[in-house]
Amino acid sequence: MFMGFALSNVFYKVIIMNIVGIDLGTTNSLISYFKDGKSQIIKNVHNERLTPSVVSVLENGEIIIGQAAKERLYTHPHLTAAAFKRFMGTKKKYTLGKYTFTPVELSSLVLKSLKADAEVALGECIEEAVISVPAYFNEQQRRATKQAGELAGLRVERLISEPTAVALAYGLHENNGDCQFLVFDLGGGTFDVSVVDLFDNILEVKAVAGDNFLGGEDFDQAITDYFIQNQQLQNYLDAKGQSIIKEKAEAVKCKLSSCKTAEMNVVLGDMLYTTTLTRTILKEIFEPIFLRLRQPIMRALHDAKLTTTDLSHVILAGGSSRMPSIRTYVTRMFERLPMDSIDPDEAIVLGAGVAAALKERNQDLSERRMTDVCPYTLGTDIVEDNQFGSLQTNIYQPIIERNTVIPCSRVVRLYNAVDNQRKMNIKIYQGENRQADQNLKLGELNINIPPKPKWQSSVDIRYTYDVNGLLEVEVTSLDTGQTKRQIIVNSENQLTPEEINACFKRLASLKIHPREKDENRLLLARAGRLYEEFLGEMRTIIDRQTILFEAVLDKQDLFLIEEAAKEFSAFLDEIEGVMY
Ligand code: AMP
Fold it and tell me: Which atom of ligand 1 lies at the shortest distance from residue 258's CA?
């Protein structure tokens, strides 16, 4: 007789492994999946499509992520981190209360919250994601993004560059004719330009250029600086004051996308400061930022060997493309109206969803292929004889030129520079500077060579760059046949498997604020912010309402809490309406 279970008593939940698309944005993040032949956005626990990429630590040590954390950016700037995508791949540390986080860890918390929301919404387990990254992200930044995915419990085999995702969202791959497009993506913290070519049903990014430090935040900062100067506040501001003004600056900037004039009211301590802003003033203070937009556009066109008139379309993406001045700028520059039918906040994630489907070999898209480019030149350093008979060192030798379509593999042959040289040291760099050491060093390899007269011993250096932006370097001595191979790992920022494991455990031990209580936490955070924004009697009113709401929360009666939350939320909506 066999031991067995009474199968009829066991309930099986069919767990479908889903692959999702994720836009891990500087300001906001989104998640999507491909269903019924199209990419669809999955709403978060608050029924919102956007989850702010913000993490905050509560006074009790719990972690909150998203909108509730964003509210605390204003009231608790020292316990809250935002825009950490800008520092992906660096050693920057964020100290929030008793915790210290890296940008990778903070990103992983955002990804984890997106994953949890999607699992609740779909009722399915999500194991894998295609995550978008700015086209300009270098090796370290791409690797850091993958690591953030891993720490969030996601398998990330494929990254997609953001402009490529936008092109997919617009369905360029479904177009019948061959054509060339430019994607102009101005987000919160990054600016990406890419020239995309559709030929024979293959979508190919011809060239990318951009600026990792140009985006909506620069416009916010310009307004902040203007306000501070206008109100003579230069010498009276601490970090909190700055962050209060910047938050208002962003709100006024967005308002001026639909109105011609807007008041900027800021309460600092017991004082109310007011300035009127107009589109004309914005035009003036944004001028230096507009100048910075031109160069990446020209470089991408130049690299793709195109002019503005060769393009079939220009597509706008990124939240900052909602600014009328950006549309005017693009229309003037390209002498045509840009494509902007998809909400600029959503184009990337919708495209990432399409890429996820491509990866899953979903039948709807099985015939399509896409390619990508290497965003930076990859090379090594060499020495050369100068005309005075001595050796000039530190000369950059490109091996894979920027904007080469990937995957790709290139080889260069180098010779011994001095007699009886016994070893060759190959340094691997990424960048465009002619002085090798001014570029980003990714790693190095040593290979022994037999002692021979100068120029008589040779090695082949092969760089292979894969679709995920990972670089394999292979060095072969043609004299001995010996080969050394390395996947480039930057020891400074790359975690070992043990470190990843430790990091995983540390993050798992963090107490994430219960998601079902998030809604109420958000209301309290919002009330806290509004309290700081208002003065006098309004403050007393907000205070009273907050105390009442907290008292109901203490009762732990779900029905009462739900009713009180509705009322408190309506009250906050009403007073927020007064403010803006
Ligand atoms: P993204 O990184 O693509 O999510 O873009 C976020 C940026 O878009 C932020 O800097 C926002 O302030 C900006 N943004 C969103 N909506 C508007 C708007 N209506 N007008 C101007 N900027 C906006």
Answer: 19
Ligand 1 mean position to 215 CA, how many Å? 9
Number of Cβ within a 10 Å radius of residue 134: 29
Best of 254, 315, 323, 326 for a ligand 1 pocket test (most atoms within 8 Å of beta carbon): 254
Residue 566: both structure tokens together: 């509705």
* Angle value at C-alpha 493, between 490 and 496, nearest 5 degrees: 85
Q: With both helix axes pointing from N to C terminus, report the angle between 497-509 and 139-151 in degrees, rounded to the nearest 10.
A: 50
Q: Region 303-315: what's the mean pLDDT?
A: 92
Which among 41, 64, 39 is positioned nearest to 52, based on CA atoms? 64
Mean pLDDT of all residues belonging to the chain = 86
Strands (E), 269-335: 271-278, 313-317
User: Per-residue pLDDT for 449 more than 50?
Assistant: yes
CB atoms within 10 A of CB 568: 22
Nearest CA among 446, 443, 444 for reference residue 493: 443
Whether 318 is in the pocket of ligand 1, judged by its Cβ within 6 Å, is yes
Residue 515 has pLDDT above 90, yes or no: no
Which protein residue's CA is at the shortest distance from atom 1 of ligand 1? 187
Q: What is the pTM of this model?
A: 0.71
